[in-house]
Amino acid sequence: MEENIGLTPNQIEFLAEDTIITIVPNFKMESLIFLSGEYGPFIPSFPVKVPLWLAVSLKKKKKCNIVPPEWMSFDYLEQQYIQENRVTDGFVDLPDNFIEISTMLLSSCPEDINDVNKIRSLIEDILNRRQSKLNNSLMNHLQSLKDNEPISTMEFKNFSMMEINRVRSSFVSGINHLYKIQSLDNNDNNSNNNNNNINRTQSNSQTASRSIYSNTINFSK
Amino acid sequence: MISYNNQIYLDIDDILAQEQKIPCVFLYKAYKLGSLIEKKKEIKYKLEIKCTHHPNYDITSKCINCNQGVCSVCMSELHNGHSFSSESLNLEIICIHHPNYDITSKCINCNLGVCLVCKLKLHKRHSFSELNNNMSSEDTDIEKDTKIKLPYWLAYVLAKKSLVSVEIPNPYKDEHSFTNRLLADPKEVSMIHYPYYASSGTKISSLFSDHNLKLFLLNIFKKRYLYIYNQASFLKDNSMITKILGNMTQFEKRLFQEIHKSFVDFENWKISSDKIEKNYYLYPIESNINSAKSSPNKRKRLIFAN
């Protein structure tokens, strides 16, 4: 059993902190130069775009106000939630890393966001809904396979990196195990031929794919 | 074998699963393979040892938990709830007179079990007979047509050379009670006696070229996998978890723990980031050290000079 596949949630949060959001500073400073780029001169009451990690640490020092991103409004999220409930065989297109960004913003600057509590509960609802959709579709897919059919490709679209990471081990190990049971060539005194072709790609983007012989589980945007 | 980043990891499941015993019948006489035969532990004669706690009663069996001989009164009073075995009565019973020594032989004159020290001190010049309970290490021949149970890795090789004829072992047989229970409800059957049921099952099905067995295994493990997946994502109660884990094969245990861990990690992350960290910037040095010690998983943030 492979160990330590995937990332911890903290690492994914770290990766998500590179996204750019707008803040409104209340201090004056010349532009800051980092390895990742130059973030413009800070003039009081003029919005400026900075990465999320910078915004959160400035906020903690009470030097700015964060402007929540466009998708973080109650109306937009509610629309997506309704859409999520309607569509049963796919997932709704939500912004990259929305889980990480939303948890960080909700914890560091709740006063800047309208309808904070509603948004909090709505995001939880969306997450639960997606997870249960995933569970149901996995169950239906596995149970609907007739006896002789091999377990074939499964594709999930619009799944965020945090959610992929959560289910990665269960899907990959479990389905690999089932595949080993059903595969034809089981004379296992040399069993390396069965498992040599496992490709694993760590995803910095929204895709995670793993191919086991001809099986593939694709998560794509 | 799993190849991962160009290193090869042995799949332990594969190796341990090959210990599954398969009944074989030798087609030819096998010379000097007598060590394969396990001698059954027989009670050769009844030892008459009085129980130390209840001097009127004989020791009739052995308590497995405490590794002591017990009489019938002991069983109900002192060793309530323990499990007993009456078979290997002769093994590992501690001598009453010399508690550091096991009873290893029987004195014929006095009809009592004796340890080494008893032999030298209390029963001088009596005659003894050894209790022969160990596996025979003599290399006798195995006659033709003897039926013994060999582990898979040995049976496979011998069968390929047509030296033995093999038969499907009991837990995989068609009409056996275990398979019937599995067919009825795969989730509730305890795999405690067969911790490598899946892996050894696949090897056995290839040895016997039995496609039905493979399909049977696939169906069962599909259902068990779905059950595990559902339980692992929601369960938080540790006693329930250990109860469920007790019924699973080794692979399923690891699978359950992986799934459980990743869901629990997510929950913990979500909860800890919701907490607003107080006094983060008022006492920059001390509170940072404290928070680093108390939550080793949380990485440190860069602090700008205040």
UniProtKB/TrEMBL annotation, chain A:
Bias (Low complexity): 186-199
Cytoplasm as UniProt keyword: no
Source domain of life: Eukaryota
Biased amino acid composition, Polar residues: 200-210
GO biological process terms on file: DNA replication; double-strand break repair via break-induced replication
SUPFAM superfamilies xrefs: GINS helical bundle-like, PriA/YqbF domain
Annotated ranges, domain GINS subunit: 71-181
GO cellular component: GINS complex
Claim: Phosphoprotein is one of the keywords in the record: no
Keywords (A to Z) from UniProt: DNA replication, Nucleus
UniProt cross-references to InterPro entries, sorted A to Z: GINS_A, GINS_bundle-like_dom_sf, GINS_Psf2, PSF2_N
Location in or out of the cell: Nucleus
Record region (Disordered): 184-210
Pfam family, one: PSF2_N
Family classification: Belongs to the GINS2/PSF2 family.
Subunit structure: Component of the GINS complex.
Name the UniProt record assigns to this protein: DNA replication complex GINS protein PSF2
Organism: Dictyostelium purpureum
Automatic annotation (TrEMBL), chain B:
Annotated InterPro entries: GINS_A, GINS_bundle-like_dom_sf, GINS_Psf3, GINS_Psf3_sf, PSF3_N, Znf_B-box
Family stated for the protein in its record: Belongs to the GINS3/PSF3 family.
Domain GINS subunit: 179-269
Domain spans labelled DNA replication complex GINS protein PSF3 N-terminal: 11-44
Protein's recorded name: B box-type domain-containing protein
Entry's Gene Ontology BP terms: DNA replication
One Gene Ontology molecular-function label: zinc ion binding
Record-linked Pfam families: PSF3_N, Sld5, zf-B_box
GO cellular component entries: GINS complex
Keyword Nucleus: yes
